[in-house]
Inverse folding.
């Protein structure tokens, strides 16, 4: 993340234009996130709700990571990718929620230019990486179900590490370049962002230069990193379903399908909430509604992902039960 703190960003100046042309004021370091200011005193209730959800998200995801690390039976590629997913969800929520909690308690909801760039970079990187990891996990299930005899050879520890590492490296590299390019634009006009976090559309609206190339690149990145992995997931499950239907017994089909049901639910949750965001029409009259939808998308998936994997996975539940029993016996 040190690449974001470049001379370009440190020297960036945002011009705040007041209502009168002669009263222009230069803002050197600070942007204002309007967020949920319209809620007034109700912000404290939202603060309490988000605090509980954030702590629960941290607890569940850390529990999954520790459980997998401490259980040798879970040291398989699928759970290695799940550790990456839980770590990603922690980074994703932590990049936004703590700042939002502070802003719900203070009048001045400010963020520095570099802080805005860093937040944008982390948020988008986590989203892109999650798409890639979900596709990799779908491929892992495809190999396990369609090529079980070759699974340990194809999905070795080295291959799993390379697939996860490539997901992180490519997403981070692309997003650092895109964020640095965006914040190298000259900004003018209001320094108020009508959202509770820094995102590309509202930031590009502040630019007083041609942003058509930025928009095209942004759409290209979206197609490659969201639709691309989604198509790979669909293809993997087409092959998986085809293989499952060829099994002779209903019990066998149910048992095999249960090994990928948790992943399928997480994929549906991730892309379902993303689809809602894209399908809801955007307008200046619905800024509050858009923020609520974004907030739900941000807090729902990271909190539910570990719950889905712990409650619907027999191996994880078994490891959790053994860990609890071991802890009780030790204390006794």
């Amino acid at each position: 993340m040190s690449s974001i703190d470049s001379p370009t960003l440190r020297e960036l100046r945002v011009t705040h234009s007041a209502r009168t042309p002669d009263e222009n004021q230069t803002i050197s370091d600070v942007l204002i996130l309007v967020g949920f200011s319209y809620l007034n005193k109700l912000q404290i209730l939202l603060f309490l709700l988000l605090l509980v959800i954030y702590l629960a998200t941290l607890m569940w995801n850390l529990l999954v990571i520790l459980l997998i690390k401490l259980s040798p039976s879970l040291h398989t590629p699928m759970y290695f990718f799940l550790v990456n997913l839980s770590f990603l969800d922690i980074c994703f929520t932590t990049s936004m929620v703590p700042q939002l909690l502070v802003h719900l308690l203070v009048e001045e909801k400010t963020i520095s230019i570099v802080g805005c760039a860093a937040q944008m970079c982390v948020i988008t990187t986590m989203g892109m990486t999650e798409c890639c990891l979900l596709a990799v996990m779908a491929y892992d299930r495809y190999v396990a179900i369609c090529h079980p005899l070759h699974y340990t050879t194809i999905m070795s520890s080295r291959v799993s590490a390379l697939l996860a590492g490539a997901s992180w490296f490519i997403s981070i590299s692309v997003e650092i370049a895109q964020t640095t390019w965006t914040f190298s634009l000259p900004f003018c006009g209001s320094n108020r962002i009508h959202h509770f976090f820094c995102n590309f559309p509202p930031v590009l609206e502040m630019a007083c230069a041609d942003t058509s190339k930025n928009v095209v690149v942004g759409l290209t990145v979206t197609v490659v990193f969201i639709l691309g992995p989604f198509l790979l997931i669909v293809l993997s499950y087409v092959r998986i379903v085809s293989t499952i239907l060829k099994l002779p017994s209903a019990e066998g089909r149910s048992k095999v399908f249960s090994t990928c049901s948790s992943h399928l639910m997480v994929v549906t949750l991730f892309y379902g909430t993303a689809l809602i965001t894209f399908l809801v029409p955007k307008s200046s009259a619905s800024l509050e509604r858009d923020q609520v939808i974004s907030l739900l998308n941000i807090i729902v998936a990271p909190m539910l992902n570990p719950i889905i994997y712990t409650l619907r996975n027999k191996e994880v539940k078994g490891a959790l039960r053994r860990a609890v029993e071991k802890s009780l016996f030790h204390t006794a």
User: Anything to note?
Assistant: The chain has twelve helices and five strands. The radius of gyration is 22 Å.
